[in-house]
Structures are given as structure tokens and as C-alpha cells.
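DATA SHEET
Item: assembly model
Revision: 1
Owner: S.N.
Input lines:
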Amino acid sequence: MNSRTRAIVLGTGLVLLAAVPPVAGLFNQPFYLDLVRRVMIFAIAALSLNLILGYGGMISFGHAAYLGIGAYAVGVLAHYGIDNGFLQWALAIVASALVALVIGAVSIRTSGVYFIMITLAFTQMLYYLGISIEEFGGDDGMRLAVKSQFGLIDLNDGSAFYYLVLAILVLFLVLGHRLVNSRFGMVIRAARSNEARTRSIGFSPYPYRLAAFVIAGAMCGLAGALLVNHTAYLTPEFMNWTRSGELMFMVILGGMASIAGPVLGAFALLLVEDALSGWTQHWQLILGPLLVLSVLFFRHGLAGLLFGKNE
Amino acid sequence: MNNVLLEVRGLTKSFGALLASDDIDLEVREGETHAIIGPNGAGKTTLISQLAGNLLPDRGRVRFAGEDITALSAPARSHRGFARSFQITSIYRDFTALENVMLAVQAHAGHSFRFWSPARAERALQEPARRVLEEVGLGARAGVPGGSLAHGEQRQLEVAMALATRPRLMLLDEPVAGMGAEETQRMIGLISTLKGGKTIILVEHDMDAVFSLADRVSVLVYGRIVATGTPEEIRANAEVRRAYLGEEIAA
């Protein structure tokens, strides 16, 4: 598929997403606004994970950590009466980046199954930390009494919040596209493809991988700040390991060799989940085999079906 | 006689009970092509890996241009002028031939913490990469993914990636492995055009390649260097013939 057709597909997707609030309003179905906004927030998280998982070959099984940190940054500041959104979201990004720096500095020295286990272990630590802090509701979590305040944009306005999430998603798609094709992106992709060769031509992959890990963590931290505003509820469940698994599924289902792939994956997974759960309470019994089949038969994910093999 | 560029002293490496490098001494002079030959399992690739920094020796020192580099990593050695080609083809299969070489250029063209502009469009990376592809005879195949190139072309790409880092010392690990006669001749021709300008350590099984390219030859048997000399001296060396060459080149 050439770049023009791809631009048409992406443009169509953007128009469809932009049309959701007025259409949902027209049919008086605010539920769909809510659903698509939630999907886009997870799409942002999955997109950030794909930078390290798909392009960097770093199989992080703990990416939900940054969803949690972003959410707690907002929730904790709000708890103490600081509701300035710029401050809250800046903290969400910076705190996620710092935690990613620590986790990455340790885990990137390992590879394979050790890397998976270390990233999982760190996230479980944070999860249990969240459960143990009674001040913030322990494992029950706590309500976010006031959403992040931005002056001009009111997040209580469902469509305004929706368009803000959409804008961030589009921004991250553009940033991600630039990143993976930049010098930096070429190095992390090269190191995934063939580490020995990459070292022999003169690159030491570690600092590049660590930087990618931090960038992905920071992006996901912002998704966490969005998520807690969306649910208006702060809970350690954001950091549950099953959440990390879902993010991985979105990436793999959507296609790892594509920046837009994880967005497709997020839509597919969450919309199918929503449809099935409305139909039967045993929806996971159906979703599981669907995922297995998609991994077996669509090696390049949904993006591979839509855009061809490579981006 | 030229200066010694690479000096190896007492290099020793074992894997469990197997002594893969046994107290190896080696001197490679600036500008020479130094072949290392030996039977299978003699430890040639282990030696190359230690020289390239992919593997650390248990004992011994390696000096390059007067500097002790024994503890330096592979990337650090690359920046001091080492380049390696691998015995088992080691390229980026999903990247095009041009992108493969551009990455090697990029590693030696300033830092790569650049996040915004597309690397493929950088002329400062493209032009040297194209020149190197032309040099090794892959100019017409620049846009083909590495994984889709023919075996011989992939071997040429190996050499191109090593060349693109503008090395002082090239470590070529069996560059004609698995090649047909015609491809072998082309590769020998390519390496001979590099001779003189560059110092080359050539590990090779193919005796035609060794004796037409090498200025000096070292023979490695069971991890030990049993002889070093000009190709004529090696041909004449009784111990070498007994240990390795057999009657193959006596004829």
C-alpha cells in the first residue's frame, strides 16, 4: 500500500473519531462518547508500549505501572487540594519518566524472560504499594472529587474532554512516527533486529534503549492522567498485571511494526470486549480464542491487514 | 617493515574444559593482510570475537595502535577503528541494503540522540552509504531488503557495513563462506582492492583466497598458533603440513 492510500485510511479514521461526539449527541447516546474516549486513552498507552515492545524488542510486562503513576500523580495532588491540571499532568509525566528510568536502568541490563519478570516485579511492587496506602483508599481506591482544571478546557464537558484525548492521540501518533524513523528510532530498531551487529558497527544499545523506555513511560503516564480523569476514580487496579497484559494484547493484536497498529488493537480489543460482555457474562471464554486465532493468523496484526506488511 | 598496529600477548580463553585460545601471541602490521587459517574447531572465530570485543579473554592483553584495549567493548573498539564481518551472515534483514550501510555510517557520524528528522533522508548518511555499496558491487541492489538478497550479496553487504565505518583494521571472518566459485572470485577481487589502504585480518578456509590475498599467514591449531610466516614459508613449513594442510597444497 502506498503512502497516499495510507493517508486516506488514516484521514478517514480521524474524521470518524472526530464525528463521534456530535453523532452520539444526535442520538442521545452519551455512552458511546464515553466508550470511545476510554478506548482512545488505552490506545495512547498501547502506542507508548509499542515503541519499546514492537520497535525496541523490549518485552515489558509492566507497562500498566505508568498508567498507575500518572493516575496517582493526579489523584494525590487533587486529594491535597491541588487541582491545577498543568501541574498535575506535568507531575504525571515527570514521575512516570523517573520511575521508568529506575526500572529501565535495572531491567535493560537483562533480556528475554528476565526482562519480562523484572518489569512485572517492579509493577507488582507499585501495585501493592498502592493497595497499602490507606490515605489514598488502599485497595478500594478513592474518588477523584475534582477533575484536572485547565481554565479554558473543562474536562466535565464530555466532548471537550473527548477532543482533548483525540488531540493527544493524534499528537502521539505523529511523535511516534517521527521517533521511529529518526536516527534514534533506527538505532533501537537495529538493536532489536541484530544486537551483535549493532554493537560491532559502533552503537552501544543501552543508553538508546533506556531513553526509549523513559519516553514510553512518560507517554503512558499522561495516559494514566487521562484515565483517572475519565473514570473520576483512582484505584490501584490501574496497575494490575492483567492491565499490563491487556496493553500487550492491544499491541500484538494491532500490529507491532506499525505506529497506528496499537490504536487499532485497542479499538478491536475493547470494542469486542464491550460487545461480548453485553451479550454474555462468559465473554472471556470467547475473547481468549479470538485472540489466539488472531495471533496465529495475522502475524502483522490488524495494521498488517489494513496497511500491508511494513509501515 | 611497517609498525605493529595490533599486538596480542598471551591471549587465553576457555569454555569449561575446552581451551579455545591457548596463550596466543600475534602481531599484525599496519597495512598488511594477515590470514589466520586452521582446521574446524581451531578457535578462529573465538579469536576474532576477542579481537572485536564481543568476547572477553580470560587472560592476556590486546594493544591497538599503542593503546591497551583488552577491556574495551565492541562499540568502543569500533570507534577506535575496528570493523568486523561475521562468519554467519549478520545483517538487518528487514532493512534495505542501503539502510544497512547507512546505519553503519550513522554510528560514526555524530550522536544519534536525534528524535525528529527522518534518518533515511539524511544526505550525510546516504551519500557515503551509496559510495560503499557501489564499491562492493551492490549499487544496483540498494533498495532491496537485506533478507531478500542472494547469499553472496549478503556476504558483500557484510563487508560493506564493515567498510562504511571507515576502519583502520578489518576483521573478516570467512568472507567467502558458502559462496560459489564465481562469487568467491568477485569477493577476492573486492578484498584485494582494499589491501594496502587497510589492515586486514582474514580468517578463511578457502586456500585460494588465503594464498592470493595474504601477506602473512598464521596457523591456528587447537587454540595455539603453531606458525606465522609468508604464504611461501607456510607452504614449506613441515609442522603446518603435518598438523593441518596435509597434502592439499603440497601438490
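QC remark: Residues 1-81+169-251 of chain B form a domain with the Rossmann fold fold (CATH 3.40.50.300).
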